[in-house]
Amino acid sequence: MAPRRSHKKSRAGCRRCKVRKIKCNEVHPRCGNCSKHGVLCDFEKHDDNQTSPDTPHATASASPTNSNCDSPSAATSPLPVTPSAPASTPAPLYRNPEPLPLTSTSKNNRMMELKLLHHYTTITCETLAISSPVSEKIWRETVPCLAFSGASFLADALLAVSALHLRSHAPQDQDLIRASHSYMASTFSEYSASLSKGITESNAEALFLTAALIAFQSTASRIFARDDGGDMKDRSGGYALPLSWFHSFQGVKAVVASSWQWLRNSGIVVPIIESQPALNLNLSGNPTFFSDLLIGVEEEVTSLDDDPARQMATRQAYQHAVAVLDWAHKIPHTGAPLVFLATVSRRFVELLEARRPRALAILASYFGLLKCLDSVWWLKGVARREVMGIVSLFDPDDEEWWPRLQWPLRIALIDGDGIPADVWGADWAAEKALMDQASQSGSFVSHIELLSQMFSAMQNLPNNMPDALDPFTHQYALGREKASRQQQLLLSDELQGPEVD
Questions:
Q1: b/e map of 242-260 (b: 16 or more CB within 10 Å)?
Q2: Which of 144, 110, 114, 148 is nearest to 128 (CA)?
Q3: Cβ-contact 243, 355 below 8 angstroms
Q4: Rounded-to-integer distance, Cα 449 and Cα 455, Å
Q5: Would you call the peptide bond into 29 cis, given omega within 30 degrees of 0 as the criterion?
Q6: How far is CA 180 from the centre of its chain?
Q7: How far, in Å, CA of 307 to CA of 436, rounded?
Q8: N or C: which end of the chain has fewer CB within 10 A?
Q9: For the segment 346-391, what is each residue's pLDDT rounded down to a tens digit?
Q10: Is residue 364 helix, strand or coil?
Q11: InterPro entries from the entry (predicted)?
Q12: Structural fold of domain 13-54+86-94
């Protein structure tokens, strides 16, 4: 037998060859075996450490205002540099030499996020826009893209709403309950921090959309208030008003008023706002469907408020709220009733907090209007639940207010979606014609334009100016001679929402 040829054993081979117990030819930057199989070699990692980190880092994210995932800047952004190799060497299949260290917990979290994102983009987004394909497409495609571009609070918000939507089908699912609460808590934290730093051109769109999703979440959470120990009952055990709805929707109004200089040119926000029907309020003082809710208002404001400015604010709050009711009553299937939450004044919310009978009766009629939107998951059952709760606050022997509660009561107790026109009090066949007429007479954007100008004027006034500003001062400063005195008063009152830095 021929003697075994001697050889020198090397310990300088790559790790992969050592693990496979095969001879490594020790060629740098990639040995022959690794080149043959098209995988990264341990030598590459060693060589690359001399110049750059092994794990690739993403380039700077696009500005949050870039809402197009397929934009040229996104498509052409440079990828991390791959370590150089001979031209004959096959390209590696993976950039990372080892799998990501995923624990079972983090993997479960990833799967939950994928589940929520999929549900949002396929189903939930369709429920955020009522009768508006354009707005629906924005919620489906553009909003997630904006969230991915750096607005993490917006991403958390859409995941929170998606979790709540899924929970509506599985109320006791603890994973969905935790996800909904956790993502919304994260949303509030980062959203509040961004607001405290100030609204800018770069974050205005994301803040508006997040405020809208917070409002959706606040409204839909009422469905689970009993399960979550929420605010369905007050301290005395009676019915608790859903005041959080008003606070969250008023927050949307405040963000819009503060950042309209940038939002007015947004290809995201403007179409969403334009999808709302034009806010054409009847301020003539002539009898309307809900005008009985204003009977006796003068006696109330003079007997309960001593300050003339306070009396004016109270009177305006009632008049404006009823005008919005009358407008929405004619076109309820368009989603018009939802505008009520954002457009009523801060003073009206204060009257609700004080549980003034007139404010409660107006609110009951508002919830009656929502019966037309009972098929929307986050509004399902709202009309019956809230109207019955408000009615429980009145004495059935109250001859002044009990008769004015009969309309919302009849509407709320109807089974099914069909509401007879004679019970509703409007001609359903005329709804489309009214919508067409409204679209020709203006848009919701024009209403916001006026609000924004007035908001700017109010911001520039001395701090000692009264809250109830003289309408002619506005008219002179803004050059809006065509705006009626009463409309200026109501719009001025409407601006008195939550403050935003």
A1: bebbbbbbbbbbbbbbbbb
A2: 144
A3: no
A4: 10
A5: yes
A6: 14
A7: 43
A8: N
A9: 899 999 999 999 999 999 999 999 998 888 888 888 999 999 999 9
A10: helix
A11: Fun_TF, Zn2-C6_fun-type_DNA-bd_sf, Zn2-C6_fungal_TF, Zn2Cys6_DnaBD
A12: CD2-Gal4 (4.10.240)
